[in-house]
């Protein structure tokens, strides 16, 4: 639809600009365009990242979502060149050198004669307004930079026939000659507004739907628009269980032909593609009922007020249970399991009984749900395999477990939340699907961590009566806390897995009291996204990393976040929260901007206070010592000498400080611009790392400190890191991550194709 809007797409030799407010999907659209173009074997993509947030993982996910072969993805990554830009001058110089690069015949031949490069600058305002200047310099210097930038872009499009895409933000002009002062306009002013040949405006409508409007184009009508879907979240569908039939999306067209009730809620677009409205509760209920009927021959009617189960997630859990049972070579026809909180349609019990013939016991506290569940069981002729038991709300297992029986497994999908404000699943973006479920199904006192804690405590009393205890976890932070609780109960036989579906990740936790020679859960099959975290694309520079184990003071990631915010307030530095992937519930990201080394002043004040305390202590001891010696007729001046030496040192430090201030005052007239530049701007990434190889160890916190810019350089970053270590009081507990890294000696490190950074001087 975007190609149709632009009358055939992007043309070589033209500058196109993407404008839009924050979080409208400009970067994701750029990455998608880059992926589509780079797949063509004769085109190289140059991606100039001015915000330093290019994610190779995010780019690779776009390619994988298009179902390209691995060799195609690898070749595409090699032909996507990423360069991090720090200043407007660097950007202009790089563009000019790129012109020279493509005009040189030798370089053109070395790249196989590939022409028509795609150049993406993401984004212009981030680099143009990066350095704060004085008022009288701002307009003049910005105009000069925009003039040079426009000239460099024109040379690149004319001389190399390149396609140049710039990313711009929007603003509002309030001048008197503006017809509509409230109308949004491109940033960077009127001068730059004339430069791009094509300008598109991206506005977010709802969810992933975006309206792209033509602001300026020679071939298209202005104000013409198209509706596109821009996926700005991490798709984890490739991590769905390999045997899950919903790894491939359902054929909605086939369902509409076979089932009249589904045909009523199906929507056909102008291209003839069938879709449904995921924001409509009725449509979701009909979809679930149709899938259960079509794929499993299960006939159910979901009550409007009850939870509508996501079948893909339920099947991931069911298939993991199957993996555990088969791995331990249990007879599949004689397995008995317990489903804690089975719900109104007892979805897990129905699936396990229908697919594998398991004997299932479902527990439930709500009488209305019990009645409806029994009707579902009878309707599907499974009453000989499924039994629903009424239990008290303060007991989890004990009302369902008979004393003389052994059960193979238990499973549970606990209520995730404690109250409305506790729902953190949609942290940044609104939910993709319409919400469903009542308070009894979604909420419980203390949230899921309190519920699973009671489950673990009851399992200690039951012991081996249930061979394998399992539960689903909705938050990764809770997973770490519950793993720690299990270890504290001296339970070493446990494992965990990930349930990935669409754009959501849940976790499965399993533990057993049986000896490992009978059931070794550590070797059981699991699915885990290997190493995926917010720092996956970062180089492991351990000089900017603080790793320390969990303790009583810092037991969860919120403790670290609160500590950092308090520290920033005390030091008078700016701490800004940054967005992270939706499923990274155990991660946090922020940016620190410091105008001065206030942490060094704080450390100096602390040392001076400690010295003064020591002086008072020495002085008091000296007075007592002198008094004692006078009484005995003896006199010692050692204490007095020490006191004078310390005071002299203090005076010397004070004098040095005064001289430094004087020198800085003398040079202040030459540094007015530099004074406006922050001493340090760095990104903070906080994550919880799980000890997978040796589960008896505690999980650890990792605080990454990534230098972005600042006049203080890396020295300021290192001094802030040392301040954090002292403030956290973890100096003796610092974990050295390099011990777990295998290093090769005597060999040069090969350049990886993960993130190709082109040094400016070697471009």
TrEMBL record:
Residue span(s) of domain RecA family profile: 1-170
Record-linked InterPro entries: METTL16/RlmF, P-loop_NTPase, Rad51_C, Rad51D_C, RecA_ATP-bd, SAM-dependent_MTases_sf
Gene3D superfamilies given in the database record: P-loop containing nucleotide triphosphate hydrolases, Vaccinia Virus protein VP39
PROSITE patterns: RECA_2
Gene Ontology CC terms: nucleus
Pfam families attached to this UniProt entry: Methyltransf_10 (PF05971), Rad51 (PF08423)
Keyword list, A-Z: Methyltransferase, Transferase
GO biological process: DNA repair; rRNA base methylation
GO MF, any single term: methyltransferase activity
PANTHER family, per the entry: RNA N6-ADENOSINE-METHYLTRANSFERASE METTL16, SAM-DEPENDENT METHYLTRANSFERASE
Name assigned to this protein: Putative methyltransferase METT10D
Species: Camponotus floridanus
